[in-house]
Amino acid sequence: MKTILLAVCLTLAAAEAQAISRYDPTRMSCDRVQGTIARQGAVILRYQSRRVPGLPLFDRYVQSQQFCNIGEVRKRAYVPSADTDSCPVYLCKRIENDHFHRRFLRRH
Fold this sequence. Notes:
It comes from Mesorhizobium neociceri. This is KTSC domain-containing protein. The chain has a 3-stranded mixed sheet with strand order 1-2-3, covered by helices on one side. A two-stranded antiparallel sheet has the order 4-5. Helix content is 36%, strand content 31%. Helix 2 links the parallel strand 1 and strand 2. It has one domain. The longest helix is centred in the N-terminal third of the chain and has 17 residues. The protein is an alpha+beta fold.
């Protein structure tokens, strides 16, 4: 029974991961980029690097902390859009363990 339950959970997780939408923010206004993230909760934004020609950049951008995994926090980031070079969005980043340990050790 446990094996079946585990298989069902893994199948649902894989289906959810494949269902995430992908967008090119440079073809959308900043408001539309932010609205799309807010509406869908999490999206992948893919665009070309402005510093290194031909280098594609992409990441998963989220609406709130609830879309981050355990051990991650929501951090502000900026992506280019059709109307600005720095559209503010959020992504999930791993918590820095060294930073956590230094803060923890200072208190104790």
